[in-house]
Amino acid sequence: MSQENFKEALKQKDLPIGVFDSGVGGLTVVREIMRQIPKERIIYFGDTARVPYGGKSKEIVTRYSEQIVRFLESQQVKAIVVACNTASAYALEKIEKKSKIPVIGVVKPGAKTAAEVTVNGKIGVIATEGTIRSEIYKRYIEELKTEAEVIGKACPLFVPLVEEGLLEDPVTDEIAQRYLSVLIDSGIDTLILGCTHYPLIRRTVGRVMGEQVRLVNPAYETALELKNLLQEKELLQDEKPMLGTNQYQFFVSDGADKFRYFANTIFKYGVLAVKQINIEEY
Question: What CATH number is attached to the domain comprising 189?
Answer without folding.
Answer: 3.40.50.1860
